[in-house]
Amino acid sequence: MRITEVSYEYGLPIKGYGVGFFRIGSDIKWGNLFTFNKEIHSWSGFNDANLIVNAHSEIDVLLVGTGVKLSEIPTTFRNSIEAAGVNVEIMSTPIACRTYNVLLGEGRRIGAALLAI
């Protein structure tokens, strides 16, 4: 089997996470975050759709990590994002991190809004 290294030319991969933090690129970011392209922002959670809506022209799909377990997100948050033309996929934060990296490696226009675990 031939193994090739994945190139992340369009963004910064999520290299790890733990209780309250994410490792993105060479940085550790504490708390919830929103990332797309090569941008990383602190995110205050589901009351803050504007940060994501403002990036709508840069992303096609938003992965929402809901923490350790999959849970519902507020309808108003989802509706705001979808009204801006961005598809929303909900999953637990660990799965969202892995999915983000796979899609980023494929060159997809992806964003991730992640609640820290």
Describe the structure.
With 117 residues, the chain is α/β, with parallel strands linked by helices. It has one domain: Hypothetical Protein Mth938, Chain: A (3-Layer(aba) Sandwich). The chain is 22% helix and 31% strand. The protein has three helices and eight strands. Strands 5-4-8-6-7 form a five-stranded mixed sheet, sandwiched between helices. A three-stranded antiparallel sheet has the order 1-2-3. The termini are far apart.
Shape call: globular
Q: Say how many strands there are.
A: 8
Corresponding CATH architecture? 3-Layer(aba) Sandwich
Amount of helix? 10-25%
CATH fold call = Hypothetical Protein Mth938, Chain: A
The ordered H/E elements are EEEEEHEHEHE
Number of domains: 1
What does the average pLDDT come to?
93
Structural class: alpha/beta
**How far from one another are the termini?**
35 Å
Order of strands, main sheet, comes to 5-4-8-6-7
Radius of gyration: 13 Å
- Approximately what portion of the residues adopt beta-strand conformation? 25-35%
Name the CATH superfamily assignment: MTH938-like
Treating each run of at least 4 consecutive H or I residues as one helix, how many helices? 3
Write the topology of this structure:
Blueprint: E1 14-18, E2 21-24, E3 27-30, E4 33-36, E5 39-42, H1 50-53, E6 61-65, H2 75-83, E7 87-91, H3 93-105, E8 110-114
Parallel strand pairs: 6-7, 6-8
Antiparallel strand pairs: 1-2, 2-3, 4-5, 4-8
